[in-house]
Design a protein that fits this description.
mainly alpha, 434 Repressor (Amino-terminal Domain), rod-shaped
Length: about 200
């Protein structure tokens, strides 16, 4: 984090007020201990001025507190790696539920508004079912190509390609449609599915 990096004004103001209150200090006394002015402290606490992280760290230290930063996962972000984890947790014989997770991911990728690079960057663990290992790579590559993004390198791993064809639907009419309309990213991996089924997902 650069020295000029800042936290949100509301958060910075709250942290300074809390540190000062816990220490039992007035704004004037905190200013003296931190080597600044009471008006600066008042402006920070009111949110009309925003301290840099080093200044905020100094103010907290002057009040006897320590500034700690942390991160937490974005629970609304559902990545290809998460799909692989969830597919792997299902009964291997329950192909319908496994496919449902794939289609739910596709729907979310189009609707949730998360940057595509975040959805596909992390390499998913191999599931142990080559068909789903291939289909997840096909999805990631296809999404990237249509968004004008460079697909991540993991999609090109040999473990992401099938030796034969997997017809996702066994219906004769669906097979005929897949023969014509399977996207290139899927076809070259041996995953045969009509693009219209992917879009309808």
């Amino acid at each position: 984090m650069r020295d000029t990096a800042r936290l949100g004004r509301g958060l910075s103001a709250s942290l300074i007020r809390r540190a000062r209150a816990q220490a039992g200090l007035t704004q004037t006394r905190l200013a003296e201990l931190a080597g600044t002015t009471q008006s600066a402290i008042a402006a920070y606490e009111a949110g009309t001025r925003e301290p840099t992280v080093p200044v905020l760290t100094r103010l907290c230290a002057a009040a006897g507190s320590q500034l700690t930063l942390d991160i937490e996962s974005n629970q609304s972000l559902y990545r290809v790696a998460d799909v692989a984890r969830d597919i792997g947790a299902l009964d291997p014989t329950d192909e319908a539920r496994r496919l449902r997770l794939v289609f739910e991911f596709l729907r979310g990728a189009h609707e949730d508004g998360h940057p595509l690079t975040l959805l596909v960057a992390a390499e998913p663990a191999l599931i142990g079912d080559e068909r789903f290992d291939a289909v997840l790579a096909a999805i990631a590559e296809d999404l990237c190509i249509h968004a004008g993004e460079t697909p991540p390198s993991w999609v090109h791993a040999p473990s992401r390609f099938l030796d034969g064809a997997w017809w996702v639907s066994g219906l004769p009419s669906a097979r005929a449609a897949a023969l014509v309309h399977t996207p290139a990213s899927f076809r070259r991996r041996g995953v045969m599915i009509d693009r219209r089924d992917l879009v309808a997902a």
